[in-house]
Design goal:
The complex is a heterodimer of chains A (203) and B (132).
Chain A lengths: L2 E3 L4 E9 L6 H11 L9 E4 L5 E14 L2 E9 L7 H7 L5 E7 L5 H17 L9 E6 L13 H8 L7 E4 L7 H19 L4
Parallel strand pairs in A: 2-5, 2-6, 6-7, 7-8
Antiparallel strand pairs in A: 1-2, 3-4, 4-5
Chain B lengths: L3 E3 L1 H14 L7 E6 L4 E6 L7 H21 L8 E4 L3 E8 L3 E8 L4 H20 L2
Antiparallel strand pairs in B: 2-3, 2-6, 4-5, 5-6
Helix pairs in contact in B: 1-3
The chains are: A alpha/beta (203), B alpha+beta (132).
Bound molecules: guanosine-5'-triphosphate (GTP) and magnesium ion (MG).
Chain lengths: 203, 132
């Protein structure tokens, strides 16, 4: 749920990075946090277990400047990808305005990518939402692994698995190196703000 | 869950209600937040050196998690969510369906008074938001 403060002329939106365990969601936020200057970013909050796996969520608040005279405040969240944390993922999705689905290029994650997208659809339904109405982009992460000997999926395989029904924009990424990270963020922010602004006739 | 559109009059009215019921009773900080963790109104004299954004996100998440725990043991919701610290304590209550009120207070204020005032405030805030 977006929050529109007409008194301060602010729009607050929530964008959630979703995807299977270890696909690189937290890495996306960390890269954004380190690359942005202090004025544009807030404090990064992470709730993780000992071994760097997200336990509850990460949160990175961003200030993206003005659009049509409104200050745009975005809260980036990640979910915990591990299968057992389904209930927690559902909680984090509460009030979502935009989604980045992060998929993993590693071949061993083939099934996990598909399962995670199904899990996302189910969890959205429990909030009476569908993937078709919420602005969503796809990120195919760890593309730096493709030229290595470690088995990876092809882009075509990922598209067939994940984008046949969704039919949205895809970003290739290597989040550890920052490749594709800001491209993904820019597109999802643009779509989310546009979606919220047109819904409330602010444009 | 519908988006929240807040006008100046709704915000001002809510702020005055919070000031009159809780801040005047000696409460340090009050945050009215939505279930997504956004801050609707922040009141009190300690909000400047407090990381309110993180606090709101964690309080909303904690509240959601606690509601789920309630459901697991067959309760609708817990009537009271309260964390007691050495100096400061925190009281969390649902307001209507979409809002959460977070009250932070020291040992100069009793929990009984907070509960009473929050119950009154819940009604008036619901009314303010219902009228928009
Ligand atoms: N080679 C490579 N490794 C990556 C990339 N992105 C993330 N990783 C690594 O993958 C591992 C998991 O990354 P995280 O960002 O913690 O994954 P996550 O999606 O947050 O995982 P959960 O919190 O369990 O859901 C880390 O060791 C990262 O360094 C990438 O683009 N390329
Ligand atoms: Mg993580």
């Amino acid at each position: 749920m977006a929050l529109i403060n007409l008194s301060k002329r602010e729009i607050h939106c929530k964008i959630v990075y979703y995807g299977s365990g270890r696909c690189g969601k937290t890495t996306n936020l960390l890269y954004i946090y380190n690359a942005m200057n202090n004025k544009a970013r807030g404090k990064m909050l992470t709730i993780e277990t000992k071994g760097e796996r997200t336990l509850f969520f990460d949160l990175l608040p961003l200030n993206l400047g003005k659009i049509n005279g409104f200050d745009i405040r975005i809260q980036l969240y990640t979910v915990p990808g591990q299968t057992i944390y389904k209930a927690t993922r559902k909680l984090v999705l509460k009030g979502v305005d935009g989604l980045v689905f992060v998929a993993d290029y590693l071949k061993v994650r083939h099934e996990k990518n598909i399962e995670s997208l199904q899990d996302l659809r189910r969890n959205l339904l429990e909030h009476n939402l569908t993937l078709e109405e919420i602005p969503t982009v796809l990120q195919f992460n760890k593309c730096d692994m493709v030229p290595t000997p470690i088995p990876t999926l092809t882009r075509e395989e990922l598209e067939i698995d994940l984008n046949r029904e969704l039919n949205t924009k895809i970003f290739e990424a290597a989040a550890t190196k920052g490749i594709g990270v800001f491209e993904t963020l820019k597109e999802i922010s643009k779509r989310t703000v546009h979606y919220v602004a047109t819904k409330h006739l602010l444009t | 869950m519908a988006d929240l559109v807040l006008t100046t009059s709704i915000l001002e009215e809510t702020r005055i209600q919070i000031e009159n019921t809780l801040i005047k009773a000696g409460v340090n900080t009050v945050l009215l937040i939505d279930e997504a963790g956004n801050i609707v109104v922040a009141c009190g004299h300690k909000t400047d050196n407090l990381d309110t954004i993180s606090l709101a996100a964690l309080a909303a998440a904690n509240f959601g998690a606690t509601s789920q725990i309630a459901k697991l043991i067959g309760e609708d919701d817990f009537a009271l969510l309260f964390h007691k610290g050495e100096k400061d304590s925190i009281h969390v209550a649902r307001i209507g369906t979409d809002l959460i009120l977070v009250t932070i207070f020291g040992d100069n204020v009793s929990l009984g008074l907070i509960r009473l005032r929050v119950a009154q405030l819940a009604k008036s805030i619901e009314k303010t938001f219902g009228q928009k």
